[in-house]
């Protein structure tokens, strides 16, 4: 489903002519199989979010190759990436990233608007997803009127609305209390089990990491051995 091969990334900082190169990721190799939940852990600054941004096409690797669903996406143009991203990925963020001037329902159906789906079909699918995440009675509320847990559920519904094969999540429970975190993790397990959705989750939380079939560790921009909860052992 996702293959990352020999990926390196570095940032250039400073003014042109006096730039300084800052290496972030070194020779990253990883593979995420269809239907897996894979969690990536590491300290702040280890390169976790950079790796997620590379996989989702928001930044390009300095070198290496990234393949998603059998397609080499390394050199896609911005326009090609925008279309690919809309059809293949759902995103869940720590800060929710909801549009405050739109209702919960409007936030959820927005990806379908961008895909050009007709209004009648959009409404039907958005209502079904809102019911799936337990927010059918809150569709007319604005994000500021919802609790943190409810806002994250709206984010989950928005990520699911296009029925993507992969959901990428960056610290999805970072803004939630313990009860809402447990609820969200249970939902991720259910969605993975019922729909075989592939999840790639960035986290620093051991509780979140434990829901993965495998957990990979980034340390100083290098991928270390991963722990498999299925086999109870470590592998490269």
Automatic annotation (TrEMBL):
GO terms for molecular function: ATP binding; ATP hydrolysis activity; transmembrane transporter activity. SMART domains: AAA. The keyword Nucleus does not apply. GO terms for cellular component: membrane protein complex; plasma membrane. Gene3D superfamilies: P-loop containing nucleotide triphosphate hydrolases. Keywords: ATP-binding, Nucleotide-binding, Transport. InterPro entries: AAA+_ATPase, ABC_transporter-like_ATP-bd, ABC_transporter-like_CS, ABC_transpr_LolD-like, MacB-like_ATP-bd, P-loop_NTPase. Residues 2-235 form the ABC transporter domain. This is ABC transporter ATP-binding protein. It comes from Paenibacillus flagellatus.
């Amino acid at each position: 489903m996702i293959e990352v091969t020999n990926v390196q990334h570095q940032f250039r900082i400073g003014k042109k002519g006096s730039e300084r190169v800052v290496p972030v990721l070194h020779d990253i190799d990883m593979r995420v199989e269809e239907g897996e939940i894979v969690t990536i852990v590491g300290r702040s600054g280890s390169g976790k979010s950079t790796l997620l941004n590379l996989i989702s096409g928001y930044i390009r690797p300095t070198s290496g190759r990234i393949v998603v669903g059998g397609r080499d996406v390394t050199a896609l143009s911005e326009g090609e990436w925008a279309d690919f991203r809309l059809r293949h990925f759902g995103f869940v963020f720590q800060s929710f990233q909801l549009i405050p001037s739109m209702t919960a329902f409007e936030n959820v159906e927005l990806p379908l608007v961008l895909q050009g789906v007709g209004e009648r079909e959009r409404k039907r699918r958005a209502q079904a997803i809102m019911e799936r995440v337990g927010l059918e009675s809150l569709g007319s509320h604005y994000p500021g009127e919802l609790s943190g847990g409810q806002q994250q559920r709206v984010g989950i519904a928005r990520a699911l609305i296009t029925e993507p094969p992969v959901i990428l999540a960056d610290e999805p429970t970072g803004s939630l209390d313990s009860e809402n975190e447990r609820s969200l993790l249970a939902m991720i397990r259910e969605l993975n089990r019922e729909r075989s959705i592939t999840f790639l989750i960035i986290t620093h939380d051991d509780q979140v990491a434990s829901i993965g079939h495998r957990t990979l560790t980034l340390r100083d921009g290098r991928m270390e051995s991963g722990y498999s909860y299925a086999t109870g052992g470590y592998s490269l």
